[in-house]
# Entry
Amino acid sequence: MYEKLSKAAQYIQSIKATKPRVGVVLGSGLGIFVDQIEDKTIIPYNDIPFFKKTTVEGHEGRLILGKVKGVEVAVLQGRLHAYEGLPMEEVVFPVRLLSILGISTLVLTNAAGGINLNFKPGDLVLIQDHINLMGKNPLIGPNNNQMGPRFPDMSHAYNPELNDIMKAVSKNLGYNIQEGVYAGVLGPTYETPAEIKMIRTLGGDMVGMSTVPETIAANHLGLKVCGISCITNMGAGIVKQTLKHEDIKEVAMKVMDHFTALLNHSIEKFGQM
Ligand code: HPA
# Structure
């Protein structure tokens, strides 16, 4: 795996010599953030050796290198999910690649279903912690000591310092950001109402089908991680609704201004750390 990552990194460096500071993964419907990137170099996932192509609609599948507020970034527009049938190792390949390119901070974003009754569709939520309900872990198998320890600490999987910065940025923007625990499920089905109740009992505030593997792999690598969930719908059974991927993308579109401002200003601050 390490060799594949090195080859992929070499390919990217051959297109643009770059050492990004901050990596960003854009979730469902949140891809428009790429408009904010200056000096863009766009590399389709297809062109990168050993990189799997995403099969999900609304996920573009491109790596964008460039600058946000003067900070060098590497942005993954479109992510890979375990429910696509990919081994966890493939799901976290992109995050590991960004680490080899040189990022020290990773911002993960996603669309999620709200479980905490104080949340509503359109809310942005800072991820404080996660619960892995995927029944899988990307670090299963022999450990590569070059990448990180066998038993990584997950006490501060979402970096409190980064979260404090994002809270301060939100406040300055006049936006009251929520905080919560992200429950990561395998999908691709949305949850049943009984599952939503179970996740609430377990301490989950929102639920989604991504982010957890990437957070685990990034902590293993020693990266500082933070995450933002965009609540696109309430979890099944909370309100009368049928869940559709199109509606979820539409809600994400509506919060783009907030999302973009939060990300822009936070990345600027992360670049100064
Ligand atoms: N459940 C799981 N994943 C999701 C949801 C949901 O309700 N909404 C957006 N992603």
Summary: Residues 81 and 210 are 6 Å apart (CA to CA). The domain at 2-270 is CATH 3.40.50.1580 (Rossmann fold). The two ends are 30 Å apart (CA to CA). The mean pLDDT is 92.
